[in-house]
Structure prediction request, 272 residues.
Amino acid sequence: MKFEKIKIEAEGAANAWLALYAQESYPETYGNRKRPLILICPGGGYEHVSVREGEPIALQFLAAGAHAAVLWYDVGAGMEHPLQLMELAWAVSHIREHADDYAVDKDKIIVAGFSAGGHLAASLGCFWDKDWLSQAVGKDKGCYKPNGLILAYPVITFGSHAHRGSFEKLMGSKASDELAELLSLEHQVTEQVPPVFMWHTFEDASVPLENSLLFAEALRKAGVSLEYHVFPHGIHGLSLATEETTMSDKDATDPQCAQWVLLCGSWLRYNF
Prediction:
């Protein structure tokens, strides 16, 4: 396996970086094999970036035969929209531009996100074709277009079921009704959103299930391919839902939810 730390060079980026985990290509054995790459956006309410939703997730996708990367995007005071989205777009573009170096299939770059990272991933899915983002990033839209989305208990709406803290951090000094509407992603779905795998738990008390339900409804209306799983039990922020990613102060395991990794692997093989 190859591991690289890559500085994010999007305009305004401060401490953002990309952790890239690439399978060895072994061309003498496998020929010119290209693999999908899963680019992971951990959660953390746009306040911090969760280590539990970074490398442990990447290792699971490596085991499934893909390449993986984790975006450690900027958070904190002054780190406001659209900075994190620009950093994600830059990361996708960098991977696509260097696809041959890492034996990545440039048409199979899937962006995964957890909680607030799910909002970030879904934002790229909704906004990749918008002129304002292309102008901000300074690249052609096709460079950073995601080919698929994997969303785990995502933050989606600023409506009555919002995770207010995520939106307050993301909007910061720019907070307005207009920006809140733009960042409520259930209102931004078009047929240009790529195929989606999404899961949530019925009992999530931090980011209510309505967030993913609203997004699922919007995807359905737009005709976007969706695989969607709602598990009956489980707290917010389960990550792998195994002992590997449980927390020191609370139990973040659930055997039923842990199935999402296998279900997602099946979805990847079928669609990509």
